[in-house]
Predict the 3D structure of the following.
Amino acid sequence: MNDVNIVVVGSINMDLVIFTNRFPNKGETIIGEEFHRIPGGKGANQAVAAKRLGANVDIIGCIGDDIYGKEVIGILDNEDIGTECISIIPNKNTGIALITVNKHGENKIILSQGANSNLSPTQIRNSEHLIKKANVLLLQLEIPIESIVESVKIAKRHNIPVILNPAPAIKLEPALLEQIDYLIPNETESKQLVGKDFGDTEEIIDTLKEIGVSHTIVTLGEKGVVFNDQTGKIIHIDAHKVKAIDTTGAGDAFNAAFGVSIAEGKTITESIHFAQTVAAYSVTKSGAQPSFPNRSEVTGKRNN
Ligand code: RIB
């Protein structure tokens, strides 16, 4: 394992989570089970997951000047993640995600972006000193798209590989897509990316390749992963079979682990195997950040 630097540009949230036997129907009130307040946000989750896997990690993001902001930045500091480029936005709430998780470990999430919507291209430019020393830049879409564009521009100027997890999904411009080295959508997100109807995952990967995305890695949950390798061949890898308790943050665990492994110089296929192991571990525990393993907990497991 090498000492690698990961920079995450992304959201920092507090997750308000209710576990429930089943999701309510439209217009229905049901009595759920326990409630938990858990630090989250796709950006912060990826930062925590990458740090626990042994990388040096910095995060660029925004929190509100509220009680949740103090709590989430304290947690990032405790994890020893670099927080010097987090801005505290006056009179704004920290991002809040309302999450329900059913007995199958499936979730439904609504995000109030709060301070995450204040992450500006100027803040990204002011953080260039961090981005340029990264081995890999990790991005997701819970922050303004202009800041994603600026982050990619800076990363490319310094030849830093960019991993984009396009969640929550929106249609993305080809001018942005063509600069992404590794695009990691889930099945639903992959269909929304280029705003066109597709027959199957292979067609999506081929279309994105034509646009200029070097590698698209589509995560299919319990059906595994489909991606194009460095030779252009489309490959399917089965998922690990585990009993899911809570799938919240599994995508973040996958992206972070993939990024750490690529930063360590592993191949795309090796990195996907590692990412699958880490994501499979995470779904066997509740919550996003509390479910992410330390490196020692996933070393020596299948394909590592
Ligand atoms: O990917 C899971 C995350 O999505 C949660 O932690 C929640 O904050 C939402 O951003």
Observations:
- The chain has a mean pLDDT of 94.
- The pocket of alpha-D-ribofuranose is lined by residues 11, 13, 15, 40-42, 45, 97, 109, 111, 142, 248-249, 251-252, 288 (CB under 6 Å).
